[in-house]
Amino acid sequence: MSERQMTGEAFYQYLAEQKLMGSRCKSCGALHLPPRSLCPACYSDEMDWEQISGKGKLIAFTTVHIAPTAMIEAGYGRTNPYCTGIVQLDEGPAISAQITGLDPAKPEQIDVGMPVRVAFVHRGEGEEQRTYLAFEKV
User: Fold this and answer.
1) Residue 94 CB: number of other CB atoms within 10 A?
2) Residues of the chain with CATH 2.40.50
3) Which one of 16, 75, 80, 133 is most buried, by most CB atoms within 10 A?
């Protein structure tokens, strides 16, 4: 699909383009997210980029009140918690990301198994802007 190298930088470039991309092993067919340059299933280094639908379900979550520096800079913390979780994608891989579109102050209203879809969170401005992977409640 692309001539981009299988790197973390390329993954973030795709996120900035609003594309969720994984790596598909040409040898065994395994799909990986985050993408990898070496298949952990068969150790092949012949990988292709593959766009992922971004649809899945929440399989685990937690609310975070004591945030790391990057999230504090984004406005989260003790009085403004955020939710992070593991999403099992329809294509198979599972990945952790911020979960948006819900109230992290009311975790009892968040359901394991609820459907989610990919969301792209933009932080910063101008040359400093970065796009991060997130998922939102459907």
Assistant:
1) 13
2) 55-137
3) 133
Overall fold of domain 55-137: OB fold (Dihydrolipoamide Acetyltransferase, E2P) (2.40.50)
Burial 19-45 (b: 16+ CB within 10 A, else e): bbbbbbbeeeebbbbebbeebeeeeee
Integer Cα distance of 31 and 14 in angstroms: 17
What pLDDT is attached to residue 59?
A: 98
Structure tokens, 46: 């012949």
Residue 92 confidence (pLDDT) above 90: yes
Any idea what DSSP says for residue 38? S
- State the Cα torsion 67-100-50-122 to the nearest 10°: -70
Distance separating alpha carbons of residues 1 and 50, to the nearest angstrom: 7
pTM to 2 decimal places = 0.92
Q: Evaluate if residue 17 carries a pLDDT over 70.
A: yes
Computed on alpha carbons and rounded to an integer, the radius of gyration of the chain in Å comes to 16
In this model, does residue 1 exceed pLDDT 70? no
Which of 28, 31, 135 minimizes the C-alpha distance to 91?
A: 31
